[in-house]
Design brief:
This protein has 259 residues and is an alpha/beta fold. Helices cover 41% and strands 15% of the residues. It has one domain: TIM Barrel (Alpha-Beta Barrel). Strands 1-2-3-4-5-6-7-8 form an eight-stranded parallel β-barrel, surrounded by six helices. It is globular and about 45 Å long. The termini are close together.
Amino acid sequence: MIPFKLAISAEMVFLDLPFIERVKRIHQLGFSAEIWNWTDKDIGALAATGADFTSMTGYISGTLTDPDGIRQLLDSARESIGIAEQLDCPSLNLHGTGLGEGGLPVQPVNQTTGRMWLSACKTLEKIARLGEDAGRVFLLENLNTEVDHPGTPFARADDTLALIEAVGSPHLKMNLDLYHAQIGEGNLIELIQRAGGSIGEIQVADVPGRKEPGTGEIHYPAIARALHAMGYTGVVGLEGWASGDSELALERFRQAFTL
């Protein structure tokens, strides 16, 4: 039994194939698909694959805290909603700030001030209203600052959860990425239970290496049981590289979340 909807980031597997062919292969293997930056994709061709898209990047540029960045974020979120409608994609992903080359923040921050927290909360309230008007859900993803995304504000799972709870809208949820959370915080099952109804998606990869479950230190079958026990039936997305053959990596992912 698999009580979750399993999705695969097409950005990170079947790298020898053109992007459209990756999505088709993911679909053929019985998984939903997820994409990052939509501006470099043929949206019509993606829609024509018949794949089920569960998540995509919900902005092109911008930040949560400074006036120019907020305008960019809101404008590009509106554009992203239009693309999500074409793909019938229910969820749009956000980060604490725009990410540039190599996943580094476009405006790195050493310390988040109280004023920044208030600004971020007000910006996310506006984002949630955009989601409500469009019938979509925006997801705020936690990141790790130790390895992959140094200098990103509001990156810890505790930070993203606090902002989501402060906004209190069903159109703003948490993309709880357990790869990032393991590096930054640990105690994953306790974190899942604490986040509860604020979770809009779970993303996974193993640590170290950011590859499929079973290649590192996280015991994902225990994570699957904990999610099932709390009644979670939503998306679990593999956002990790294949350690070898991509099809085998996807099967390992499927088995990890089969109860």
